[in-house]
Task: inverse folding
């Protein structure tokens, strides 16, 4: 049959519209991330300017601010690029990232590329200096959902849960033994438990296990409280200092107690931005783990609540993305990101408030650290890409109605 205008089939409107469909983008999540980063930069400058200016090596009040601003700008750009990459690619890369994280952490301990900073050998310098333990967090976030998808319905069995736990414990153990980073090991273990809990159809066993673990920790703390007064392990000394802070005022409890003084002196609305007293070399390296105390001193309870509301809204957006993700992998990977951020925020604030012993966990987007902000923004980029793949139900429904109307 000769080609004619009548016989040529035009692409259907629905097919053409699907190709041109712009997709969904969570501008709310991106906006709250940028607000947190900007807030963090302001507070970082306020917390670090005095110490940096009086440091004979640095001698610049803008040192920490400029470095963190550069890392933050690069991190935002990286997140936007990753938000354009289909998140299903991480399924293929998950095993390789898992193994790579283990290798890089092992290199910190067993190769000359490992760098010691402030007495801790946690950094790796291969052209650039970074903490491989941050890669381990991303590795476990993308790898655990991958393993869960492979197991399918077999996940219901105790054997499958044990098998998943082995991979999670291995990565956590690598962070602890290779980089001597207990806080990261705890966060990795928390991510593993959280993802398995969300994917597993049964919850009773997890609740029983959690209550048993809490009871065991309480018993151990009670025994330590009455039987130990000192230890050669600095981690045990931190726990003892937490149990008896007044007795260790000038040693292991010094930083936390000074942080509590800063929080208490801040009152409802604080002393004003830049007017902190505790940051004047009283709290060492206040721009790191203890920056929340400076926020409370300068902005008061109002500033602390505002910051927690920003984190709460960001976590809410992650919940929305996880609930509406197009498949199980998208749901689990965003859930892992949610668990990571929530754990890190809770642990940091709990340490500053002396609710738990010192762990060395930074406050996401706020504390100083280029490696931390870059790898957290990689996670945010993955979450934004999952959001891009959420089906716009209202738009799809309108197009179906238009197609039916034209046909009739």
Result:
């Amino acid at each position: 049959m000769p080609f004619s205008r009548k016989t040529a089939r035009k692409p259907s409107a629905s097919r053409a519209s699907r190709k041109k469909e712009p997709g969904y983008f969570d501008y709310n999540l991106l906006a709250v991330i940028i607000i947190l980063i900007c807030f963090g930069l302001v507070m970082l400058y306020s917390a670090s300017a005095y110490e940096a200016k009086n440091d004979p090596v640095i001698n610049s009040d803008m040192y920490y601010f400029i470095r963190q601003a550069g890392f933050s700008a690069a991190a935002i750009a990286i997140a936007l690029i990753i938000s354009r990459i289909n998140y299903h690619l991480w399924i293929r890369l998950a095993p390789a990232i898992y193994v790579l994280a283990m290798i890089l952490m092992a290199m910190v301990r067993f190769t000359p590329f490992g760098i010691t900073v402030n007495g801790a050998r946690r950094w790796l310098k291969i052209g650039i200096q970074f903490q491989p333990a941050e890669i381990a967090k991303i590795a476990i976030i993308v790898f655990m959902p991958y393993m869960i998808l492979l197991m399918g319905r077999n996940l219901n069995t105790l054997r499958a849960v044990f098998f998943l736990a082995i991979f999670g414990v291995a990565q956590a153990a690598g962070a602890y033994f290779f980089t001597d980073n207990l806080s990261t090991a705890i966060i990795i273990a928390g991510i593993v438990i959280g993802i398995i809990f969300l994917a597993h159809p049964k919850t009773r066993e997890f609740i029983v296990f959690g209550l048993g673990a809490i009871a065991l920790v309480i018993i151990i703390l009670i025994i330590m409280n009455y039987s130990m007064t000192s230890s050669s392990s600095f981690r045990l000394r931190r726990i003892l200092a937490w149990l008896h802070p007044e007795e260790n005022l000038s040693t292991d409890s010094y930083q936390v107690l000074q942080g509590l003084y800063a929080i208490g002196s801040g009152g409802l609305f604080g002393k004003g931005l830049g007017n902190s007293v505790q940051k004047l070399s009283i709290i060492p390296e206040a721009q790191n783990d203890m920056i929340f105390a400076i926020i409370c001193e300068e902005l008061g309870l109002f500033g602390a609540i505002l910051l927690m509301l920003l984190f709460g809204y960001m976590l809410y957006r992650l919940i929305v993305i996880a609930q509406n993700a197009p498949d199980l992998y998208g749901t689990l990977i965003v859930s892992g990101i949610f668990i990571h951020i929530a754990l890190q925020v809770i642990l940091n604030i709990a340490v500053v408030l002396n609710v738990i012993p010192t762990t060395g966990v930074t406050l996401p987007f706020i504390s100083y650290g280029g490696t931390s902000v870059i790898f957290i923004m990689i996670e945010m980029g993955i979450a934004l890409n999952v959001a891009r793949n959420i089906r716009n139900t209202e738009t799809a429904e309108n197009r179906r109605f238009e197609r039916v109307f034209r046909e009739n």
